[in-house]
Write a structure and sequence with these properties.
CATH architecture: Alpha-Beta Complex
Radius of gyration: 23 Å
Membrane topology: Single-pass type II membrane protein
Order of helices and strands: HHEHEHEEHHEHHHEHEHH
Number of helices: 12
Largest sheet: 4 strands, mixed
Distance between the termini: 88 Å
Pfam families: Branch (PF02485)
Protein name: Branching enzyme
Number of domains: 1
Strand order of the largest sheet: 2-1-3-5
CATH topology: Spore Coat Polysaccharide Biosynthesis Protein SpsA, Chain A
Subcellular location: Membrane
Organism: Handroanthus impetiginosus
Number of strands: 7
């Protein structure tokens, strides 16, 4: 009896090192994921970005696709990017739990190391920050960073967008195009979604902002986002009221409004139709709505600039969009 107990004790003691060796391989290791992000953001911050001022090195636009489904409009984007290879880079953050397949073409090899995302959760902030950090490290010529979703489409040709950002008015040079709003309905409920005083003292209610999760940032502001620790400590906290919790719509506008309000236009280049929204989602366009008139209408803004992207489109809109791509969408 004594020998049996002794042998069992020895066996358990010997098994502990094996558990520490194999458990990290069997179970997801959240701490490792957090450490990997911290290393990525630190490297991107230390890179410091590189201002491009010579004509021998043309600045680029980094397109950051944030998706949890296949890129249904890849053929349309393929036409958009066609013949403009030296002027852009593509990075895709695809939810690893969604079995997303690569559409090939210009999207081949563009997937970055990704983690699971969830609506009404700070993982969407993390995904956007991961995209920005990867793009900053990958190519110092990336000068603008456009975050788009799988349901976004371009409203103009690539050359029109490129020239508008770098050469033409009315777009102000070296400013970020991000929606920044205050005084919106339900902004108090959104502010206290994690608890009444949780955001203090870093984020007073008077400085809390609302905006779109899809934006175009300058290199300077991309660095502001990836190096931030102070506000991120607040916005990564779990929400108690999920009905009022949209972290990705609050973090970026609040951070940039606090850090550099004059460096932001306070409007987005992505058109969204909130008429008839359902469950916090904007109107989704169907194939019967696609027409030249729709594209022209989506471009129009209440200012002197033109919208460059639009959402949200159902996947079966691809064919009618391709039918008018050359003659309407990419003819400026």
């Amino acid at each position: 009896m004594f020998n049996a107990k002794f042998l069992l004790t020895i066996s358990l003691l010997l098994s502990f090192p094996l558990l520490f060796l194999f458990i990290p391989r069997i179970l997801p290791h959240k701490r490792t994921q957090i450490q990997n992000d911290a290393v990525l953001f630190r490297r991107a911050t230390l890179s410091g970005g590189t201002a491009v001022s010579t004509t021998n090195h043309k600045p680029k636009i980094a397109f950051l696709f944030l998706t949890n489904t296949d890129l249904h409009f890849a053929p349309l984007w393929q036409l958009f990017f066609q013949s403009n290879e030296p002027l852009y880079n593509i990075y895709i953050h695809a939810d690893p739990s969604s079995n997303i397949t690569s559409p090939g073409g210009v999207f081949s090899g563009r997937f970055i190391a990704a983690q699971k995302t969830q609506r009404a959760h700070p993982t969407l902030i993390s995904a956007a920050r991961r995209l920005l950090a990867t793009a900053l490290l990958d190519d110092p010529l990336n000068s603008y960073f456009a975050v788009v979703s799988q349901y976004c489409i371009p409203l103009h040709s690539f050359k029109y967008l490129y020239n508008s950002l770098f050469f033409k008015s009315p777009f102000p040079m070296h400013r970020s195009f991000i929606e920044i709003l205050d005084g919106e309905p339900q902004i108090w409920e959104r502010y206290i979604a994690r608890g009444k005083n949780v955001m203090l003292p870093e984020v007073p209610f008077e400085q809390f902002r609302v905006g779109s999760q899809f934006f175009v940032l300058t290199q300077k502001h991309a660095l502001v986002v990836v190096r931030d620790r102070r506000l991120w400590r607040k916005f990564k906290l779990p929400c108690l009221n999920l009905d009022s919790c949209y972290p990705e719509e609050h973090y970026f506008p609040t951070l940039l409004s606090m850090e550099d309000p004059d460096g932001c236009t306070r409007y987005t280049l992505t058109r969204v139709n909130w008429t008839g929204s359902v469950g916090g989602h904007p109107h989704t366009y169907g194939p019967r709505e696609i027409s030249p008139q729709l594209i022209h209408g989506l471009r129009d803004s209440n200012s002197s600039y033109s919208f460059m992207f639009a959402r949200k489109f159902s996947p079966d809109c691809l064919r009618p969009l391709m039918d008018i791509a050359e003659k309407v969408i990419f003819r400026d």
